[in-house]
Write a structure and sequence with these properties.
The complex is a heterodimer of chains A (209) and B (116). In chain A, 84% of the residues lie in helices and 0% in strands. Chain A is mainly alpha-helical. In chain A, helix 1 runs parallel beside helix 3. The radius of gyration of chain A is 33 Å and the shape is rod-shaped. Helices cover 54% and strands 9% of the residues of chain B. Chain B is built from six helices and two strands. Chain B has a two-stranded antiparallel sheet with strand order 1-2. With 116 residues, chain B is mainly alpha-helical. In chain B, helix 1 packs across helix 2 and helix 1 packs across helix 5. Classes of the chains: A mainly alpha (209), B mainly alpha (116). At the A-B interface, helix 2 and helix 3 of A face helix 2 and helix 3 of B.
Chain lengths: 209, 116
């Protein structure tokens, strides 16, 4: 008889913990399993008749049903709040990343366009006309490619990542003497752009930047 | 209806008081059925606390920091041929809650140290 009541109790626990987070579910099932065993073992040791143990177990199960249901509800609410909070934190971090990417790429691109334009317009005198035209045009083009990447943003994230990477690499090559700044900055831009593209193509939340 | 933040329910106070009594007797940790039995004996009740009420209260008390728990080593449980027990103990916060809401209690520290 105790086996039947224990089976009913286990069945109920399995039912009300179904679909819960694994740690909550397993902990509650183990708690009750251990309790059922201890109850039977203690009563056997005390010489309590089996039917009395069965009645006690049945009572403990039935009387606890409302508490089981409300516990399940509370855990679901708590888990949902935790998920929401985590989602908010993640979204905030993604927004920071996306804004950082936009600002950094925009500054780099603008710097190149401005320096390239000044070079073409002979505002730096140590280069020949051909050199000025070649270097200036390269820098302007690299800057414009990056600006195009910034503009594409979340509309076409992989295209944007490609344009930003192309612009960053071209800049690092064209101004190799500034590699100490351009290589790390370029790597940051490329990494952030790829992360954004991966997130957006996986169905993640769009940037709020 | 939601209970007030920080409020201790009667079942939670019964658990804390029973746990404190166990500590005083040199039992630093307790498991679910043990505390249900202790409450029944202390309150001279006719029945044991139900599974749902007991484990819901224990879970909430742990979330509130009144209790801490650990799962028993599965090897030990297997050696004794029974399911694993979850061992609970009253935290300092739990002890403070008992002192705050009931008659003055003798200090619990010596008993706990003796138990460990």
């Amino acid at each position: 008889m105790t086996a039947v009541v224990a089976g009913l109790t286990r069945g109920w626990v399995t039912l009300y913990t179904a679909g819960m987070a694994a740690d909550d579910r397993d902990a509650r099932r183990a708690d009750v399993e251990s309790d059922l065993w201890d109850h039977q073992a203690t009563n056997t040791e005390l010489g309590v008749p089996a039917f009395v143990t069965a009645i006690e177990m049945l009572g403990r199960w039935l009387i606890g049903i409302p508490a089981d249901i409300s516990w399940r509800y509370e855990r679901d609410v708590t888990r949902a709040s935790e998920r929401l909070a985590m989602q908010r934190r993640r979204t905030m971090w993604q927004t920071i990343q996306d804004r950082g990417l936009t600002i950094l790429a925009f500054l780099m691109a603008t710097f190149f366009v401005v320096v390239g334009t000044f070079t073409v317009l002979q505002m730096r005198g140590e280069l020949t006309t051909e050199e000025r035209l070649v270097y200036g045009s390269m820098w302007i083009i690299a800057g414009l490619v990056m600006l195009a990447g910034v503009y594409m943003g979340s509309r076409s994230p992989w295209m944007a990542a490609g344009l930003l990477a192309l612009g960053a690499i071209a800049m690092a090559l064209a101004m190799f003497w500034l590699f100490m700044f351009l290589v790390p900055a370029g790597l940051i831009v490329i990494t952030l752009a790829v992360l954004r593209a991966r997130r957006l193509s996986a169905g993640g939340p769009p940037a709020t930047a | 209806m939601r209970r007030k933040e920080g409020a201790i329910l009667p079942i939670e106070m019964a658990i804390l008081e029973a746990a404190v009594e166990l500590v005083r007797r040199g039992v630093a940790e307790f498991y679910g059925f043990q505390i249900a039995k202790e409450i029944k004996e202390r309150q001279e009740a006719s029945r044991l606390t139900s599974h749902g009420t007991l484990y819901k209260a224990l879970s909430r008390m742990e979330d509130a920091g009144l209790l801490a728990s650990r799962w028993e080593d599965p090897m030990r449980a297997a050696e004794e041929g029974r399911p694993r027990r979850r061992w609970y103990r009253v935290t300092a916060e739990g002890e403070a809650a008992v002192v705050k809401t009931s008659v003055p209690q003798p200090t619990l520290r010596p008993a706990r140290q003796a138990a460990s």
